[in-house]
Automatic annotation (TrEMBL):
Signal peptide: none annotated. Transmembrane segments: none annotated. Residues 69-335, 414-678 form the KIB1-4 beta-propeller domain. Pfam families: Beta-prop_KIB1-4. PANTHER family: C2H2-LIKE ZINC FINGER PROTEIN, DUF295 DOMAIN-CONTAINING PROTEIN. This is (rape) hypothetical protein.
Length: 705
């Protein structure tokens, strides 16, 4: 049964997440998405919740993305989508308005965030109640999430009515009359640079704006246009017969544009939409803005729909077309500003036939929406406090925060009974991978994610392992296991690798890796190449497997060429030759940069542990560079703002500036001592293990990666 509205019977009550030591992160974690709708077969139910599939369109890959089995919050039952801003959806129903992250593929599947706003009861006499669009002043409606200050939500109605409120503070809405009748369709947006809500006036010659204090009168700014293109009479006549929309949009770095979008009504697929883009000049005078026509907005893409308009840096999301405008409304197309031509999107393959209309809302990537996430954390284990009837336990989840260098406790978290007898064997994308000792069944859980539900952690069950080896090396995943195309890979000590697609495969695909080559290699997934990589000992070769590898497939082999090794004296080389060495391939999630890291640790006998222990002595980092001779690895002591995290989990990078307290140009490590290594000085720094020796050794990236 196809659904564009959430029409369900009453749901059971929900538990809100408790956020512990939360930090802000600004990571580009998703593509922009278009909301296609919600689909379910009578909305399958489990554990008292009604489940549905969220259907999204990915414009970068031009394909359907399905977020399966998402629980629909009780508050959204029978509600209608009325807008979107910063990746959050706005819903109206039952004389109430709610804001929710339910359309986000990264949000909790079982416990979406829902924020209630006051009901709109005091409409100004004679005004339309038809919502045109919604805008929000900050990346999250949660007050505690915002570095920008209190969030302000503004709703523009068809006509000349505007209303505003601050979630969590205001008990009612502040209504404003727009000083012109806005039946010509322009979208309200929030300018972070000017800290004002802006709305183009009819004709696009003025910009009307409001500050965040409500009581002040609107400000008018005249728009003065330059370099208007010379068009033939026939083209002006054609545009004069079109439906026109004016959109004011701001890039992530604060550059402003006015976009004039001309559409044929009714929509005719064979007729192209027409677009004019004007860029704000820097020599703008007080009271005016000089807007110059342009056919070059560089690496930017602009997204226009009934959502708040936004810009995305195309190179931050492979597949997006730079210098383009993505349209949804009277056209579902991408418009090339350079060639002034458009290409209409085809109906996504796999979309249910009963879903014939799409919701006209683009969702911004969560780098723009700035999903407020966590610091990277090290898993320390759990401290059981109570055993519940039925086998579940209440426990404190213990984490180590390397930015604050302190213990973080997520109190009173429910540990499902299914995880009681399971060993954590790896971590990837913030998810823990657990394997049962008695039957080798596998589960993926967000148990250690401090932003996930405390009372109902998400668990995804995978088939039982059938590989001969039971010694685990590490785990890598292509994406969050919520996503339909996720592939999980487990590397075993020895010559075994197993692959599985959660929710799709009934058994694991077991692959024999080359003998005597990859026994202790660390697995990683390259988003750029869409392959799993295993560096051979010494890092001389890289072995790779594609996502659909079969048992009989051989890996691709790539020889690694190194340049610029550091000049070390004899004693330094002798020390390194006495160390254990592991190789780790790591890729930046925000660019195509790739690094190969060699980790050297010296062994010594510990009388306390009564065994051989290791202490980290040195790291060598090689950055991949393209030359006329091909790809080479060049030694570097400067990875800029990046931090690299190495442990038994899949290696990852984080910009230090995204999390106050992290050390740039450093490597954080766990496994041969707990600490960080400064690449600039070559000095290792050891942490004292908080609250005893860690029982686990897995770094969790910020959950938005």
């Amino acid at each position: 049964m196809s659904q564009l509205l959430f029409r369900l019977s009453k749901l059971s009550s929900r538990n809100n997440n408790v956020l512990i030591h939360k930090k802000s992160s600004r990571f580009l974690s998703t593509s922009p998405y278009l909301i296609l709708g919600v689909f379910g077969d009578d909305f399958r139910s489990a554990c008292g919740n009604f489940l549905s599939d969220i259907l999204l369109f990915d414009p970068a890959k031009e394909e359907l993305l399905t977020v399966r089995d998402k629980a629909v919050p009780e508050e959204l039952v029978c509600s209608q989508v009325m807008g979107a801003s910063h990746g959050w959806g706005f819903f109206s129903g039952h004389n109430a308005i709610h804001v929710s992250d339910t359309f986000s593929p990264l949000a909790s599947k079982s416990d979406s965030k829902v924020i209630a706003l006051p009901p709109i009861t005091s409409m100004i006499y004679g005004q339309s109640e038809v919502v045109w669009n919604v805008a929000m002043s900050s990346s999250s409606p949660y007050r505690q999430d915002n570095e920008e200050g209190d969030c302000v939500v503004a709703i523009k109605f068809l006509g000349n009515h505007l209303t505003m409120c601050r979630p969590g503070r205001d008990l009612g809405w502040t209504n404003k009359l727009i000083p012109f009748v806005s039946f010509e369709n322009s979208n309200l947006m929030y300018s972070k640079r000017e800290q004002r809500f802006s709305l183009p006036a009819p004709g696009g010659n003025y910009l009307c704006s409001w500050d965040l204090h409500f009581e002040n009168e609107p400000k008018f700014t005249e728009l003065v246009f330059r370099n208007i293109p010379q068009l033939p009479q026939s083209e002006w006549e054609l545009m004069d017969s079109c439906f026109k929309e004016d959109h004011w949009v701001e890039s992530p770095c604060g550059q402003s544009f006015l976009v004039k979008w001309y559409s044929h009504v009714p929509s005719i697929r064979c007729k192209e939409p027409m677009v004019m883009v004007f860029r704000e000049d820097q020599d703008t005078n007080e009271g005016t803005k000089t807007m110059s026509y342009t056919e070059d907005i560089g690496d930017l893409c602009i997204f226009l729909s009934k959502s708040e308009p936004f810009c995305v840096v195309a190179s931050s999301c492979p597949g997006l077309k730079p210098n383009s405008i993505y349209l949804m409304g009277h056209s579902f197309a991408v418009y090339d500003i350079t060639t002034r031509t458009s290409r209409h999107f085809e109906r996504p393959k796999g979309l249910p036939e009963s879903l014939t209309t799409f919701l006209p809302y683009w969702l911004a990537p969560f780098s723009i929406a700035r999903l407020f996430s966590t610091s990277p954390y090290l898993t320390l284990g759990t401290r059981v406090k109570e055993v519940l009837p039925g086998g579940c336990k209440i426990a404190d989840v213990l984490l180590f925060d390397p930015a604050e260098e302190e213990l973080v406790t997520v109190p009173d978290k429910t540990v499902p009974k299914e995880l009681m007898d399971e060993e954590m064997v790896g971590a990837s994308h913030g998810w823990g991978v657990f394997c049962a000792r008695h039957d080798r069944s596998v589960r993926i859980s967000d148990l250690y994610n401090p932003l996930a539900s405390k009372s109902n952690p998400t668990m995804i069950t995978l088939p039982r392992l059938t590989a001969l080896s039971s010694n685990y090396c590490n785990v890598a995943m292509t994406s969050s296991p919520h996503l339909e195309d996720c592939v999980v890979a487990i590397k075993f000590v020895g010559d075994h690798l197993s692959l599985c697609r959660p929710g799709r495969d009934l058994e694991w695909t077991n692959i024999l890796t080359p003998p005597s080559c990859l026994e202790n290699s660390n697995l990683m997934y390259s988003k750029r190449d869409q392959k799993f990589y295993l560096p051979a000992p010494g890092g001389k070769y890289l072995f790779s497997y594609h996502l659909h590898s079969k048992e009989e497939d051989f890996p691709e082999v790539q020889e690694v060429v190194y340049r610029g090794h550091p000049e070390l004296d004899q004693s330094e080389w002798e020390l390194l030759s006495s160390c254990t060495r592991t190789e780790h391939l790591v890729e930046s999630p925000f660019s195509d940069e790739r690094f190969l890291v060699k980790w050297y640790a010296h062994g010594f006998y510990s009388s306390v542990l009564e065994r051989i222990d290791h202490i980290t002595k040195r790291f060598m980092v090689f950055r991949e560079e393209e030359t006329t001779e091909g790809s080479i690895m060049c030694y570097t002591e400067d990875i800029g703002d990046m931090c690299i995290f190495l442990a038994n989990s899949e290696a990852f990078c984080v910009p230090a500036s995204s999390c106050t307290g992290l050390k740039p140009n450093s490597i954080y490590h766990m496994g041969r001592g707990l600490g960080f290594y400064d690449l600039t000085t070559g000095n290792p720094h050891q942490y004292l293990a908080p609250d005893g020796v860690p029982t686990l050794s897995y770094w969790l990236p910020p959950f938005s990666i």
